[in-house]
Automatic annotation (TrEMBL):
Record Pfam families: AAA_23
A Gene Ontology BP annotation from the UniProt entry: SOS response
Keyword Transport: no
Name recorded for this polypeptide: DNA repair protein RecN
Reported function: May be involved in recombinational repair of damaged DNA.
Record key words, sorted: ATP-binding, DNA damage, DNA repair, Nucleotide-binding
GO CC annotation: bacterial nucleoid
Natural source organism: Salinivibrio kushneri
Similarity remark: Belongs to the RecN family.
Domain Rad50/SbcC-type AAA: 5-214
Length: 555
């Protein structure tokens, strides 16, 4: 419940402190006095958009603070706990706007974004503006009113969650299908490239081996000549060779060693050199015997190396990296091969999630049809009370989820009305006049407000277009609502104002070129005078005073 509000330098308000009570509070005043200013200021504390023009001329900033009691508001207490902003059973919302247009928002002294104030504000107060009857013509507002009355928020949350999941998966599938042509083209290219490399069938280290063999075969003549020359120098030379010289020298050293032991190690060293020379000569000779000078093999190697180098240039890699490139392309081709499987899986997910959406939408539709029947009866009865004796109201709920799914389900909701005998039910915009629309709108707001958990309701001149006996009924309806809920009603009708449990008066003063709005509560005697003013205008007679007192007594 709203306990009090403090306003500083807002619009034409210099300073204003108001305390609010339970029940219905009527707010009256002369035209242009600023009866709706307190509601506009409260809207800022509830997260409305701030503007530099809201700051009183000549002042640096405007500041609005509203205090709420939360004993019977479990939803708001839970929200504060979830957001770690709880501070006992009370809650204080504060908003500061500078003349430059900057604003700061606070909840229980903690700075917060205005969006958080707005989220909390929806749990504290429900404001019905003076243009609510115009909103009533909009289909999206009609379905919102029905949902508020039905109170199936958990179904709405589930519907929104499932719808978003379905849309997200559907978009993924659409994107994957869109890329399929590109993927198919890429797959064809990879298949061709892998086919070429498969045909080559290059081993992991084959290129290095081929390169060595090709080098050996292409230089086999020089290798043979040089190897033979080495053998000749080492052992096969007719005139002289290394092996014969080493043998002769080793024999001389052996003779010297027999005369002097100092030469024994030297003789052994030459013996080792002679043996190594002999082994080297034998190895070179063996190599010569095995040397293959097959020109056909060399031609094969020429062709294979040419193919390898050609494919390496095509793939822009070195020949010795072609094997690794081949393996990478095979892996990429395998991945692309799973594309169709991914599309099939996503399609299955989309179908399953769409079925979940349809299931929730059907449950939501059943709930709406159920509560629509209740509302049809209650609003029709209220229309009869509001001087529309032959009126009839019906909410049409048509499930179109299979073709028109949305986060709200798949229902097309339409408010239909008949105001005269024999007139068929038709959409509100086609049938109801301005006055009738205002009365129907008020009836809907009062009835739906009884089902909304928000503990405070504000009606801002929603009785426009209503007068006479109808106004008295409207006042009684609002007072009945005030018996269980805090109701604040800005009105210009004495019949409505007289039904308030309490009444506040708004006045505008002008002094030395400065205008100030003030608001204050009226006692019993002052209420009679204000009601008499509303009844009789500028001339207040004993009769109008008596009529005003009758209004209070009747309430």
């Amino acid at each position: 419940m709203l306990a009090d509000i403090t306003i500083q330098n807002f619009a034409i308000v210099k300073s204003l402190e108001l305390e609010f009570s339970k029940g219905m509070t009527a707010i009256t005043g002369e035209t242009g006095a600023g009866k709706s200013i307190s509601i506009d200021a409260l809207g800022l504390c509830l997260g409305d958009r701030a503007d530099a023009n809201m700051v009183r001329p000549g002042e640096k900033r405007a500041e609005i603070s509203a205090s709420f009691t939360l004993e019977q508001n479990s939803a708001a207490r839970r929200w504060l706990q979830d957001n770690e902003l709880e501070d006992g059973d009370d809650c204080i919302l504060r908003r500061v706007i500078t003349k430059e247009g900057r604003s700061r928002a606070y909840i229980n002294g903690n700075p917060v974004p205005a969006s958080q104030q707005k989220a909390l504000g929806q749990l504290l107060i429900n404001i019905h503006g003076q243009h609510a009857h115009q909103q009533l013509l909009r289909p999206e507002h009609q379905i919102t009113l029905l949902d508020q009355y039905a109170g199936h928020q958990s179904l709405l949350d589930k519907m929104a969650t499932r719808y978003q999941r379905w849309r997200r998966t559907k978009n993924e599938l659409k994107a994957l299908i869109k890329k399929k042509d590109d993927i198919d083209a890429q797959q064809q290219l990879l298949e061709y490239q892998v086919g070429e490399l498969n045909e080559l069938a290059l081993g992991e280290e084959e290129y290095q081996q081929i390169e060595e063999e090709h080098k050996r075969l292409s230089n086999s003549g020089d290798i043979a000549m040089t190897s033979q020359a080495v053998v000749d120098l080492l052992s096969d030379g007719e005139e002289t060779n290394t092996l014969s010289l080493l043998t002769a020298a080793q024999q001389r050293l052996s003779e010297l060693a027999a005369l002097d032991s100092h030469f024994s190690p030297l003789a052994e060293m030459l013996e080792e050199a002679r043996i190594q020379t002999q082994e080297t000569s034998q190895e070179v000779s063996s190599y010569l015997d095995q040397l293959d000078m097959d020109p056909q093999r060399l031609q094969y190697l020429d062709q294979r190396m040419s193919t390898i180098m050609s494919l390496a240039r095509k793939h822009q890699v070195q020949p010795d990296a072609l094997y690794e490139t081949h393996q990478q392309l095979i892996q990429e081709l395998e991945k692309l091969g799973h594309n169709d499987e991914a599309i099939e899986q996503l399609q299955a997910d989309v179908d399953r999630q769409f079925a979940d959406c349809l299931d929730t939408a059907e449950k939501l539709s059943k709930s709406r049809r159920r509560y629509a029947k209740e509302l049809n009866k209650l609003i029709t009865q209220s229309m009869h009370q509001l001087s529309m004796e032959h009126g009839s109201f019906e909410i049409q709920v048509e499930n179109k989820a299979k073709t028109h799914l949305s986060p709200l389900g798949g229902d097309a909701v339409a408010f239909l009305v008949s105001t005269n005998p024999g007139q068929p039910l038709q959409p509100l915009a086609k049938v109801a006049s301005g006055g009738e629309l205002s009365r129907i709108s008020l009836a809907i707001q009062v009835i739906t407000a009884q089902k909304v958990e928000t503990p405070s309701l504000i009606f801002d001149e929603v009785d426009v277009g209503i007068s006479g006996p109808t106004a008295a009924i409207v006042g009684k309806l609002l007072r009945q609502l005030g018996d269980s809920t805090q109701v604040m009603c800005v009105t210009h009708l004495p019949q409505v104002a007289g039904c308030g449990h309490q009444q506040m008066f708004v006045a505008k003063d002008t002094d030395k070129g400065s205008t100030t709005t003030r608001m204050y509560p009226l006692d019993y005697k002052a209420r009679i005078s204000e009601l008499a003013r509303l009844l009789g205008g500028s001339e207040i007679t004993d009769r109008t005073l008596a009529n005003a007192e009758d209004l209070l007594v009747a309430a």
